[in-house]
Amino acid sequence: MSSVLSAITGSAAAADYDDSALLGVYKLPAPVFVAGRGSRLIDAEGREYLDFTSGLGVNALGYGDDGIAEALAVGAASGLLHASNLFRTAPAAELARELVARSFADKVFFCNSGGEANEAAFKFARRWAGAAGGAAKHEIVALHGSFHGRLFGSLAATDRPAYQEPFRPLMPGVRFIPVGDEAAARAAISAERTAAVIAEPVQGEGGVHPIPAEYLQLLRELTTQAGAAFILDEVQCGLGRTGRLFAYEAAGVVPDIVTLAKPLAGGLPMGAVLLTETVASAILPGDHGTTFGGGPAVARVALEVVRRLAAPEFLAEVRWKAERLRAALERLVGNGVVRSVRGVGLMIGIELSEPAAPRVAAALERGLLVCSAGERVVRLLPPLAIEPADLDAGCAILAGVLA
Fold it and tell me: Do 318 and 293 fall into the same domain?
């Protein structure tokens, strides 16, 4: 361990950690993490853990990345961490041009999180659709198994009754349809009522379920016919996670809106909404806003991240690592615990024959961080930049934990 990390771990012990002032919206395990490097986190006692969650898909380039540190240092050295969106700064404009050049989009809106990005997407879609179809054309159609956030609009479009119940009434005008059900889609998507359809190309929190390409193509066809926006939520599955820069590329569809967040700014809070000129033309000054979105220092870091994640050689490595990981996990299928393995790229769900929580806890005890996605699914989201040796080490731990 370096002298810097030794100093950090030596200055904070787990026994001194007091989180009594934090609102308890999470059930937290024992380790207190104080540092990280590569694919590993280090706790206050100096123990290392392989992280196969990458901060819930955020740390695509791992921990302690030199490029991110340099971009952040340049932003801090400028003295311009924030200037508000009442004035012009260069990094956000440059980042927006980069995202437009690499996607279907013509315009970009920056915010601070995935939930905010989806809320903004709903507003933009309703503004555009309502301009043509009036107030009746406001409904959002979402898929069963979806997760789009915990704010009032995004929660309304999240298929989690237990999450929704304490906070009703939520945003009205949302209906759900089963994934793959063509008849339900045709019945739900209406030229008179529907403002937008939203889908995750790979449902993350819902159990790591890739949506079939032909069903995404059907939704694209039906939204076009209905004059509704087709929104793809790539907050978790976008920006290289599937082995392509955007997950929609594999399905051969062109959406009207895509939402991004998690890995976008390398661990700093940032979300984005990518949208076509057609939808953007309906949005007027004052229709939406953000104080912190696209701040110069955060945007500078995000530009570094996007350029690296978009590199063809980097994405080819992600696909190669995904094949390596998938092959190792497939060997566990049928062992009495592991029923199946599914996913795309470095976004993997391991379906178990029993609850996942005890296996997640057992992995933590052995120095591997994984998470769940539903009651019986272990979810893997390793850093996209993970070294092959760390990938193999994590697989070896999993083989023991899931034996």
Answer: no
Tell me if the bond preceding 263 is cis, omega within 30° of 0. no
- The pLDDT-based confidence of 1 (bands split at 50, 70, 90) is very low
Last residue of a domain, one of 309, 333, 366: 309
Q: Which domain holds residue 286?
A: 68-309
Please identify which of the residues 51, 233, 256, 390 carries the catalytic annotation.
233
Do 92 and 218 belong to one domain? yes
230 in active site? no
| CA separation for the pair 243, 237 (Å, rounded) | 10
Together in a domain, 175 and 197: yes
The single residue of 109, 110, 122, 147 carrying the catalytic annotation is 147
233 an active-site residue? yes
Catalytic residue among 52, 65, 262, 321: 262
Quote the number of domains for the chain: 2
Give the C-alpha separation, 76 to 71, whole Å: 9
Instruction: Give the residue from 279, 309, 339 where a domain finishes.
Output: 309
Condensed to tens digits (0 to 9), the pLDDT of residues 103-152 reads 999 999 999 999 999 999 999 999 999 999 999 999 999 999 999 999 99
Q: What is the DSSP string of 26-39?
A: S---S--EEEEEBT
Residue 396's CB: how many other CB atoms inside 10 A?
Answer: 13
